[in-house]
Amino acid sequence: MAVLWSKLSAVLPPNEEEFPLQFSDKVESSVVSVLQQSRRQLYSDATSTDRTLTAQIILDLSWEKLNTGTWRDVDKEWRRVYSYGCLFKVAALCREHPSADEILQGIRTCDMGLLMGAAIMDNVLQVLVQILQEEVRKSTKEDEQHNITSTFRVKTERPRVPVIKDEQAVPRIKCPSLESFKSDYLLPLRPVILEATADHWPAFNEHPWSVEYLRSVAGCRTVPVEVGSRYTDEEWSQTLLTVNEFIDQYDGAKAVGYLAQHQLFDQIPELKEDIRIPDYCCLGDGDEDDITVNQNFLVQVVGSKYIRLYSPEDTDKLYPHQSSLLHNTSQVEVENPDTERFPEFARAPYLECVLQPGDVLFIPVQHWHYIRSLELSFSVSFWWS
After folding, report:
1. Which residues neighbour 332 within 8 Å (Cβ) at sequence distance 6 or greater?
2. Angle at CA of residue 73, ends 72 and 79, nearest 5°
3. How far apart are CA 330 and CA 242, in angstroms?
4. CA 131 → CA 83, 127, 212, 291, distances in Å?
5. What is the rounded distance in angstroms from the CA atom of residue 110 to the CA atom of residue 117?
6. pLDDT at 228
7. What is d(CA 43, CA 31) in angstroms, rounded to the nearest whole number?
8. In terms of C-beta distances under 8 Å and separation of at least 24 residues, what long-range contacts does 90-93 make, across chains too?
9. Whole-number Å distance between alpha carbons of 59 and 113
10. What domains can you pick out in the chain, each with its CATH number?
11. Where in or outside the cell (predicted)?
12. Could you give the 3-state DSSP secondary structure of residue 258?
């Protein structure tokens, strides 16, 4: 494992003097002193126990700051402190003779820094996690193959697929020109399914996506998972799982788990290499930071989904929640509506479709959407303006 540490240390500054530790006065001097101590230990013959203890102090102090108040109010400096704590902990875990479990702990620690922290030292945590992940792939390849075979479960239940009426079906068109898409669908805000526009993706060709492929690329990576079918339900929650744990717990299970609302490709760039940004996104001319005016392309990669779309003109018939936090969420259970509580819902016109692998659904700005997976399903969502 000395080879592993040589790879990790090669991406770090060569000595303590060149290792940056600069913070604003938002970070107390006592915390900076602990960071400096951890930096000294990184370049000295300190014991693994001492390195781990100091790194954990940094993580505990910054974790408290990250979880005080709302996330938007957390100062970025404390997110940087947390990332440094993750860096020092990874170094402590993998410095001498790390076990397979310690390497996995190192990967999880990097992921926590990528999820909760802020980029430091040219995004060094991303580089470190790729080195550690490659080590896991090499050392456990045979065991991973066994796990794939033994844990993969195929759904045998026939999905409940609604019958799509022609007059309510989202129109389909094959590879429209940029000009025709803009004039016929983008400007008038008309939903449409674009066919044969994602067929060239590596996710459909060189690296066809599947449960097995996801395990091989990202199985040991920690990601946020939404637990529950609707985030308005009382039992809805969020948790952190590795991708392998997520698949083992929810593939074929009755419980609902949802890996969404997360920039997965920033965390795991290997998956990003398997997709391509649709050319039609170049038609946008808005402000990237203005999320209230974004259009959406939903690309189905694996499995199928049933989708309904409602125009913003019919918002009053969809009974949005009154709270500002949930104002863009309907109170209606779409496929089993309570007609006494929501009598106008039945009068709301909609378009619907079953999205199949390779389909690209254009969801215009502010359109209401309801989505139900009909089977194990992977999709990629592009927001653009």
Report:
1. 318, 319, 338, 342, 345
2. 85
3. 31
4. 17, 7, 21, 35
5. 10
6. 75
7. 19
8. 90/8, 90/125, 90/128, 90/132, 91/8, 91/12, 91/42, 91/51, 91/55, 92/48, 92/51, 92/52, 92/55, 93/52
9. 10
10. 2-139 (no CATH), 142-156+210-263 (no CATH), 166-207+264-384 (2.60.120.650)
11. Nucleus
12. strand
Compute the distance between CA of residue 325 and CA of residue 327 in angstroms, rounded to an integer. 6
> Residues 154-194: pLDDT tens digits?
444 556 788 899 999 999 999 999 999 999 999 999 999 99
41's tokens: 């230990």
Query: Which H or E run includes 215?
Result: helix 211-218
CA gap 221, 103 in Å, rounded: 12
Instruction: Compute the residue count for the chain.
Output: 385
Angstrom distance (rounded) from CA 261 to CA 264? 9
Residues 6+ apart with CB under 8 A from 149: none
Q: Which of 356, 350, 302, 303 is nearest to 193 (CA)?
A: 356
- Is residue 253 pLDDT above 80, yes or no? no
Q: Which residue has the higher pLDDT, 266 or 253?
A: 266
List alpha helices for 11-123, DSSP H. Answer: 29-42, 48-66, 76-94, 100-116
> Residue 62 corresponds to which tokens in the numbers above?
């910054």
Q: What tokens were used for 44?
A: 């000295």
Closest Cα partner for 221 from 143, 129, 88? 129
Q: What's the count of helices (H) and strands (E) in the chain, helices before strands?
A: 12, 11
Token pair listed for 316: 């009053």
Q: What is the pLDDT of residue 22?
A: 95
Q: Chain-centre distance of CA 205, in angstroms?
A: 22
Distance CA 56, CA 42 (A): 14
67-76: pLDDT as tens digits: 998 888 999 9
Query: 194-233: per-residue pLDDT in tens?
Result: 999 999 999 999 999 999 999 999 999 999 998 876 666 7
Dihedral angle computed from the Cα positions of residues 124, 129, 135 and 136, in that order, rounded to the nearest 10 degrees: 170
12-64 pLDDT, tens per residue? 999 999 999 999 999 999 999 999 999 999 999 999 999 999 999 999 999 99
